Amino acid sequence: MPLLLDRRLLLVREHAGRLKLTDTYDLLDPDTKELVGIARESMSGLIEFFPLVINKSLMPTHVEDSVAVDQPPVLVLKRGMTLFRARVDVFDGQGGKIGYLKSKLFSLGGGFHVFSTDDQKFAEVRGDWKGWNFKLLDLNGGEIGVVTKKWAGFARELSTSADTYMIEVRDGSSSNALLLAAALAIDFFFMNKK
Q1: Distance, CA of 84 to CA of 125 (rounded, Å)
Q2: In angstroms, rounded to a whole number, what is the distance separating the alpha carbons of residues 22 and 41?
Q3: Residue 3: exposed, middle, or buried by beta-carbon count in 10 A (0-12, 13-18, 19+)?
Q4: What total number of domains does the chain contain?
Q5: Which of 33, 55, 95, 161 lies most in the core, judged by the most C-beta atoms within 10 Å?
Q6: Are 80 and 87 in contact (CB under 8 A)?
Q7: pTM metric for this prediction
Q8: Is 191 exposed, middle or buried (CB count within 10 Å of its CB: 0-12, 13-18, 19+)?
Q9: Domain range enclosing 93
Q10: Dihedral of CA 62/63/68/69: which sign?
Q11: Would you say residue 108 has pLDDT above 80?
Q12: Cα separation of 111 and 120, whole Å?
């Protein structure tokens, strides 16, 4: 069974709730629906309550991805205060920086660039016009992964903003963790609905 960061396919299901200050996602094996990880957002101190009056996409936050609630993180994504272009730093479970994500100045369907620790851009995330489907592209425009929103049914789509989507990473290189972080960052940081 592959480790969380080695997986090529993940089903990501957001926890639904009426008044949520932070987001939590279950990371599932798409074939068995077995829970293989969890991604939890957290904000520190009083900042946790600011999204009630300030757009959440402007606030600093971080997300920890782990194999279970009581386990240490295997991947950490951190974003500081944001005004125009969001930057998300990506760290491994030991706190070593593995790269960062930086939003584009202008994008109709949403998108951002993926950088290594030496500031070299090596991938791009590009969304479609409705912001439901995203492609992870290498520098030559080749597709190395996709993120596709799954229809949750009329009642769930109407009553909650909780999303379910599939992540498929086709690149099996050492950048797999950074590409997985990019796919998770779409909903947590760049397409925030609150």
Answers
A1: 18
A2: 6
A3: exposed
A4: 1
A5: 161
A6: yes
A7: 0.82
A8: middle
A9: 4-190
A10: positive
A11: no
A12: 17
